[in-house]
C-alpha cells in the first residue's frame, strides 16, 4: 500500500519518509515499534505538499488483523504549541493518510491522535481540548486529541 502510493504514484522513495523512532528534537514516544511502521510526516509534507501542515509521525501497524484492519496513530511531538496549530496538523495528516488507506484494500482499526508536549495558554483551551475533532473520510465522531508529556511509552498509547 505505502510503496504503491508514495513510490509508484508519487515518485517518493520509502526510505525518504520512514523513521526508526517517533522522535523530534528532545521529545520522544518511547517503546517498541517492531510491529509498526513510522512515517515522517514532515518529509511527506516537504516532498509532496509544500505549505501543508503535518504531524511529526504517522505510525501504522505492519500487519493487518481481523482480515484487513490496520491501526493508525497520528502523533505531533514537543514544544509549547497552540491547540489550533496541533489540531490543524492532526486533521491535515489524518485526512491525507485516510485518503492513502482508501486507495488500498485495508480498513482502519484503531485510530489514535495525540500530542506529546504542552499547550500554550492551557486554561483558555480546556473546553477545546475536550471537544471531538472532525476528520473528513473517517466515519467516526469520537476522535479526540490525547495530550501527554514527552517520554510516554508507546504501549500506553496503543492501548487507549
Low-confidence sequence ranges: none
Largest sheet: 6 strands, mixed
Quote the average pLDDT: 88
Q: Total helix count?
A: 6
Strand content: 25-35%
In whole angstroms, how far apart are the ends?
26 Å
Helix/strand/pairing category: alpha/beta
Order of helices and strands: HHEEEEHEEHEHEH
Globally, the shape reads globular
Summary of the model, kept short:
The strands form 2 sheets. A 6-stranded mixed beta sheet has the order 1-4-5-6-7-8. It has a two-stranded antiparallel sheet with strand order 2-3.
Structure overview:
This protein has 160 residues and is α/β, with parallel strands linked by helices. 31% of the residues lie in helices and 30% in strands. It has six helices and eight strands; from the N terminus they run ααββββαββαβαβα.
Question: Topology of this structure?
Answer:
Elements lengths: L1 H8 L4 H4 E2 L2 E3 L2 E3 L6 E5 H8 L8 E5 L7 E13 L1 H20 L4 E13 L6 H5 L14 E4 L5 H5 L2
Amino acid at each position: 500500500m505505502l510503496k504503491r502510493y508514495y513510490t509508484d504514484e508519487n515518485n517518493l522513495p520509502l526510505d525518504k519518509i520512514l523513521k526508526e523512532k517517533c522522535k523530534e528534537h528532545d521529545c520522544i514516544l518511547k517503546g517498541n515499534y517492531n510491529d509498526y511502521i513510522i512515517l515522517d510526516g514532515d518529509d511527506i509534507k516537504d516532498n509532496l505538499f509544500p505549505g501543508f501542515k503535518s504531524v511529526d509521525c504517522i505510525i501504522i501497524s505492519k500487519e493487518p488483523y481481523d482480515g484487513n484492519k490496520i491501526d493508525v496513530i497520528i502523533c505531533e511531538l514537543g514544544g509549547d504549541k497552540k491547540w489550533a496549530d496541533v489540531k490543524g496538523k492532526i486533521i491535515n495528516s489524518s485526512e491525507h493518510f485516510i485518503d492513502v488507506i482508501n486507495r488500498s484494500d485495508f480498513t482502519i482499526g484503531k485510530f489514535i491522535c495525540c500530542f506529546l508536549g504542552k499547550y500554550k495558554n492551557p486554561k483558555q483551551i480546556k473546553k477545546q481540548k475536550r471537544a471531538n475533532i472532525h476528520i473528513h473520510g473517517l466515519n467516526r465522531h469520537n476522535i479526540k486529541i490525547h495530550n501527554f508529556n514527552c517520554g510516554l511509552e508507546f504501549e500506553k498509547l496503543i492501548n487507549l
